[in-house]
Structures are given as structure tokens and as C-alpha cells.
Amino acid sequence: MKSVAVWMPGLGLVLLVAIAARLIGRFSGPIPDVVLALVIGMTIRNLAKPKGIEAGTKFTLFYVLRTAIILLGAGLSLQAVIKTGSATLLLIVTLVVTSMLLGLVLARLFKLKGKIGTLIGAGTAICGGSAILTVGPIIGAADEELAYAITTIFAFNIVALLVYPVIGHALNMTQTAFGSWAGTAVNDTSVVVATGYVFGAMAGGVATIVKLTRTVLLVPLALIVGLVYAARTHQAESGTVAQRAFKAMPWFILGFVAMAALNSLGVFPAAFAHTLALIASFLIVVVLAGVGLNVDLKKMIDLGPKPMIVGFLLATIMAFCSYGLVSAIGIH
Q1: Rounded to 5 degrees, what angle do the CA atoms 203, 152, 287 make?
Q2: Structure pTM?
Q3: pLDDT per residue as tens digits for the range 274-318
Q4: First to last CA, the chain
Q5: How do the domains of the chain map onto residue ranges?
Q6: What is the DSSP string of 214-240?
């Protein structure tokens, strides 16, 4: 009971911020509720400086995040991914690996500090904020790094939503080609879907399936990052590489896979799976509110403009790479 009482002030504030962001998000146009939750949380944290919320926000970033990611699996149909995504699977894997490696290279070239290069690479490679929130705890990233990486990803997402359909029409891309491009080059799932449907209904459907195929790769990415991070952790008290890997392994990803498998087997009625997906999307908003309430804006500013430059440069390069590969393999 004592621990619950300690959590309540922070949890209550996190929920209020998330609800406000969800309501405002209905009228905010291209700015999604997750970005609003992050901004509102950061504003409250740095202007009002509320006391006694740390336990609740930490609870959110640990337990609510893992719950959200597990429930996101209920929105996946592995059959649909395999059926529609198999044609673009090699393209997706190639781009994911390229994005992750290029992100690390750019981070080193620009001499980024801390873990932010890995976060931006993961967010660009897989699924934006969800990937950043999954990988962040594995590598011990600071809240300011998480917030900066997420802000960078969402900033490019807004640009993509406004610009990609215009470019697609100017290049006379087909619905399938544009959907494949948007599904591999845009990061956040909601923005991928929106970008595809702005271009056309068929493009929206293709973009959604391609993006879901890409999302599945969050599982091996998280496992690989956990193993690499464990192998590079050399503190004597950390034990063997195997022990560090076991400790760093994101076991909640198994829940994500299990939910996707159950949904694919038809265990969940369609309405129930849809409800779980809606709950998961709201919990992601809750998590972003928690991230915002934990961020010291001064520390974030101290990171400088380089991470934002790296994020936009990486996303732009990957947009060209994606378009080039979509054209080269003849998707039309």
C-alpha cells in the first residue's frame, strides 16, 4: 500500500497529461498526440517543477511501457504480414540494417555523446518512438536522450506527412510503389498509415502492411542490441557476457510475439484485438507523458543541435535509398 501511495502523484499527473494530449490531438492536425504528451509533460516538468512525481513516472516508464509493447502485438496479423510483406521483406531487412549501421556511423562522424546515436538509428530503422522506447532501457539511455531522439523522429515524420505525397504525385508513383516507399521510409506507424492514405486508399493499405512487416523486426533488433550492449559492458560486477546478456534481454518482447501469434491464430475476436490495439496506442501516449515529465530541458539543450542534424540527415538518406530500391526491384 505504501508503494502505491508513492506512485499515485506521478501516475495521476501522467494520466492527466496523456488524456489532455489525446483530446487536444483531435484538433492538432498533423501533430500527433504522442508529441503533444511529450511537449506538455516537458513544459510542466520545467516550469511548474512538480514534487513527488518521480516514483510514478518511473513506474510508467518501466511497467506501462512494457505493457504497451506487449499489447501492440495484438494489432499484428502474421499471416497478412507474410502474405503482403514477403514481396518487400528483403527490401525491408536491407533498409533496416542500413539505417541502423548508418545511424551509428553518422553518430561517430558528428561525435554525438551518450546513446542518442543508437536511439535515432533504431527509431529510423524500425518504428520511431516505439523502437526508441524499447531500445532505450536496454542500453541505459538517459531520459533527455530518449526525449531528444523521439522529438527528432517525430519532427521528420511531420515533414514526411506533408511532403511525401506531393513528391509521390510529382514522380507519378503508383499506389503500390508509393505505399512501399512510405512503409519503408517513414518511421512512426500512425504517420506511415496517414501518409499512405493521403496519397490514396490502396497506397495506405500497402504502407500499413509494409510497416507491420518492418515492426516485426523490432524483436530481433532488441535482442541484438541487448546482446551487443551486454558484450560491451565490462564492469567486474556485471558477471559473464551470458549473464549480462540475460539481464539486458528485453523479455517483454516475447509477450509482443505471443500476442501477435495469438491474434494470427484467431484466438482474439476482431473487436477484442482492435480494443487491445487502442489501449496500447493510448498507453504509448501515457509513456510519452512520463518521458516528458522526467526530462530536464536544460540537459536536453546541452546536447546541442547535432543529434537533430544527424536524425534528419539519416532520414533523408534513407528516403533516397528506399525510393531507389523500390524503383530498382520494380515495385509498381
Answers
A1: 90
A2: 0.68
A3: 898 889 888 888 888 887 887 777 777 777 888 889 989 999 999
A4: 59
A5: 2-328
A6: HHHTHHHHHHHHHHHHHHH---GGG--
